[in-house]
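Aim 2, interim progress. The first record below pairs a target sequence with its structure tokens.
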Amino acid sequence: MIITLAGHVDHGKTSLVRALTGVDTDRLAEEKARGLTIDLGFAYTEHLGFVDVPGHQKFIHNMVAGVASHQHALLVIAADDGPMPQTAEHLEILTLLGVTTGTIALTKCDLVDSQRLSTCRDEIAALMRGTFLQDAPLFETSPQGSAGYQALNDHLHEIAAAEQTLIDESSFRLAVDRAFTVKGAGVVVTGTVHCGAVAVDQQVTHFPSGKTLRVRSIRAQDQTADRAYSGNRCALNLVGTSLDELKRGDWITAKPAAGNRSVTIRLDQAASFPRGLKHWMPVHVYHATSHSTGRLAIFTDAPDDEVWAEVVCDDALACYRGDRIVLRDQALDATLGGGEVLYVRAEQARRRNTVEHQTLVAAYAVPSMEQSFDQLMAAGELRLEEFGHIWNVPEAGLNALKQQQKLVALDDVVVSENQWQTLKDTCLREIAAAPPKQTLQGQPALHAQELVNIPRSLRQPTLNALLKSGDIEQKTGHYLLPNKKASLAPELAELWAKLEPLLDQIQAPSSGDLAKQLNRPLAGLEKQMFALAKERLLTHIGTHRFYLPQRLLEVADAVQSMADSSANGSITVKAFRDQTGIGRNVAIEVLEYFDGRGFTKRQGNDRVILRPFDEC
């Protein structure tokens, strides 16, 4: 069992560990010279592991790095001082980080009389009231007698004996707090396993570099081991990296970790914080062993009288749903609060207070991953890749969730087969019942936004799927049922049967390339392709270039998605080329066609969206 010591500076945490284990956790020369703990210290017995954290307020960042929610807290309070400012702050930080079990050690009892001891007990009881330590046992210790140490030691061993090894289904993650080399072994990192399990010879990934490494050997709880589990303190001997590539704040993970600069939390304000919280106030952000500066953006509305806030970080953090972060005010250097991570994304949300965004966050804020899966599916917001990232689901776990229901992929959104049938029927019914359009020879047709009985997030994916299957057509920005009366001339029908599979790709070949493949004269082929374009089977986008309408729609969706996710709502030719895989020259042709349609507009080297593609 791992025990985190916490408490005010000079209240005897290091001396207490020495008395219980015989190990001096002050390993740095500066610590010994100054007589106070600056960095994390570690000590182990056969069944217990101790993390000694700094008590001085200047080293709060190191204190936060030593705490994980799986650990047992040992709050140390000196009898001569009683509870002090850092005692209260450490207690708040332990609570914010999700620690739920603990013990209280009253040290230096030999320095006070019985009346002072009684007063100190009352002060401690008052401070603990309403916290997770309210009913925690208190042990009185003194260097003058071993009885208190023995009673405390027996108590901690009893808890350790009852503790169950934590095995969760999340993907393995270890927060690095130290990195060093061992002669004959190589690079070693130490830290707390926050979730999952790791085994010898397993392939792992380093964040932030993304490098793939191999675990050569493991020490868990200071013992040689084949595996390490959630909650363990462990050391990993790694192959494939060097010491200068590793530092505190890095992560070793089973699958590649994506950094997130936007972290939405259920915010708990610290009772000791002397000011009200202000929107966009600058903060220090502490997540496991990582630190970033950032800004606090408070939601204007959240359910059940909760406070939600988006923490916009200057440096990307590798955090996930259910993690805990601590926030400190930059100006006051005081803990203002923290809380549980509800939702993460690579960049800041453009509109955090919209109903759509709050619905999305609410679907991730539910207690379990299974509930979140169901709620996202019901809302039409289930994106499997994003879901797996936010919940830190290993591939096997994601496959198990997918197998529970028969799923249909609509672009990047996933729905059940029943949902898909309902969406399809609703869409076709609404189009059939739409008013006739003069521009379409009196045929019933709709714009995408007119499908009011389909959730906004599912309208375009549903239309795209129906276009691809041929159940509907798109003309002049409208969606309509196919005109069964229309038929192609035999020679055009023969050409179309050959052309369609050749053009069914994200980068359409030029008509010159097609002429070579089909062994036809270019001029005659293009004349027939223009005839097919009049039948709305092809779209002419530029000299010698025709696209299938559904493929062009996919490209337009990619442009829209890129613009929506960019910080300034624009895209570049290079980004578009890299995202889609379309060659530069063709990418320019496509974007210039979009400019001509009024879908995009060029501004310098960038392009911005003017209006939805289906309205152009």
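The second target in this work package is listed in the same format:
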Amino acid sequence: MALQQTKLQVMIGFGLALTAFAVSCVASTTDQAVPLATPINQIEISTRTTPLLEQDGLTFRDLNRNGALDPYEDWRLSPDARADNLISLMKLEEKAAAMIHPIAPLKGPSDAPASQAYRLDAAEERILKKHITFFLTRLSSPPAKLAASSNAMQEIAERGRLGIPLTISTDPRNHFQETLGASVVAAGVSQWPDTLGLAAIGDPETVREFADIARREYRAVGIHMALHPMADLGTEPRWPRFYGTFGEDADLAHDLTEAYVEGFQNGRDGLNTGSVITIAKHWVGYGAAVDGWDGHNYYGQMARADGALDLHIRPFEGALAANVAGVMPSYVILEDEIIDGDPVEPVAAGFNKQILTDLLRGTHGFDGLVLSDWSITKDCSENCRLGLRPPTRADIGMPWGVEDLTVPQRFAKSINAGVDQFGGENHWEPIIEALSAEEVSETQIDEAVQRIMVQKFALGLFDNPFVDPAAANGIVGTREAVQKAKTAQHRSLVILENREMTLPLSPGTKVYLSGPDKADAEAAGLIPVDTLANADIAIVAMRTPYELLHPNHFFGRRHHEGRLDFRPGDLDFDAFTAAAAKVPTIAVVYLDRPAILTDVKARAAGLIAHFGISDAALMDVVTGRAMAEGRMPFELPSSMADVEAQSPGLPSDTANPLYPIGAGLRISNSSE
């Protein structure tokens, strides 16, 4: 057998039982040597340039190319035993590098993600010279191309001193919401409603099925870590990240978060070779944003649970019950909070020992990976704070509560608080500086790297890091998966009003469309017309209102902030009122936050809320070919005055909600 090939795979066992040899020389008593005569099946191995070793009729990758089988190369040993050996071989700078998690370098226009590619020269510099072993990908390509791109990155990592494979992570990429730094454009994957839509369905089995399908799609293209779900409880209606939550019912969010983790991690017993590492975020209280401002921003660093912190913890308990692999701390500082009888230190969760070590690891017994949110150790410049001019990436930094510390001191405080790995960082040298200053110990670093490497081993990446681009097309976005996603879109729609049985529309109905695609309406049997005068009915697509209140803040200019009520001058509202003045009009409102629909309800013949849906799926429901089952996963306020008077940390507490949590009608199929 040739030791080096362009691509070589040793397939699992073919049913052949091979006799194992005693491995007591390399296995600890904790892990137990494999007994003699125990059948061992060859696992799947993939390599490009790494030599292979043959021992006792089995094949292994010689990752460090020393011609001998080291314990960390021996797939018969447990992930813990392999990680112990690997750490003993790692240099200090390699350990520090394992603790940072930067964004993979891309080339190509940012407004054309499908044409982007990795900058392999920059990646090679970071992997081989800076020892980086984790990357967040924002690459959005067709499945085979994305799989090939992942392989190209792994080929570089394979050439490293110890052959440590990459773990590639991603923000959500199977939904409709697209926000820089929070989600990725869907490309080829099955497209499901946003998580609020899954909450509107309210069925853990549907969430588990979604996550299981997305898991297989991720692994097929070489993605191993999901920087989601958002287990945050959505209690502040103005908060820009509301769309990523499961709403404001803590028990429902608990059950759906648990199902989500179970689906992505391929079971509830921890990681295995089919898993995607799942990171529940943002621990804890992120959704209780004071005045709705988001914690990415200097002006949004405070949150206040108002005595309801246990409710904000509840969804995370679902993640922990499913043995979630990782937790990401929030950016925000908890105001006026008490933990174990002591006031909470006014620093963000990523620097807060009470929140991470005492509450998460202590009270809740979590022993997995704690991955910080992005850029918490970086400085917040004057422009970052004040928004004096249009922002650049240099203005990104979220060191809330520790602005006066040096960068090495911030790393040290975070490590001492309980963080294992730093998101969005490109430089590990401050960790070494903190060690030299005796602000952290090498034991702490080893413990963090142990957690990190155990997960790589559990996923099988040291043995089989490559994927098959040709097979990816048959796994990602299959007809069955796309249909299940479309069915979920149908089910997630919430019918709030159906006056005079306007819905469903009969075939041949003449419709004036503002927003929805004419071709999809025609395919559903409707007749699109160009003027209201010729229409029997109008369908107008609308979005939750928002304001651009912080145009000179990097994330503020991307977030939907401010008011939630429709007003004259809003393009969507003007189109709706013009139509409603002439013909019965169905308003279809995308709710990324809890919109105030008072003035829409008063004029609408039909009122539909959605959380991400294709026009084709919408027309299926409008014409009765599919059933909407959704129930509101949060209440809808009546007025901005009620929103301003409610507590940021308490769910369902506006004075006179227009629609309560759980609102939703069923419409009969036209054939019934």
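The longest helix spans residues 204-220. This observation will shape the mutagenesis plan for the next reporting period.
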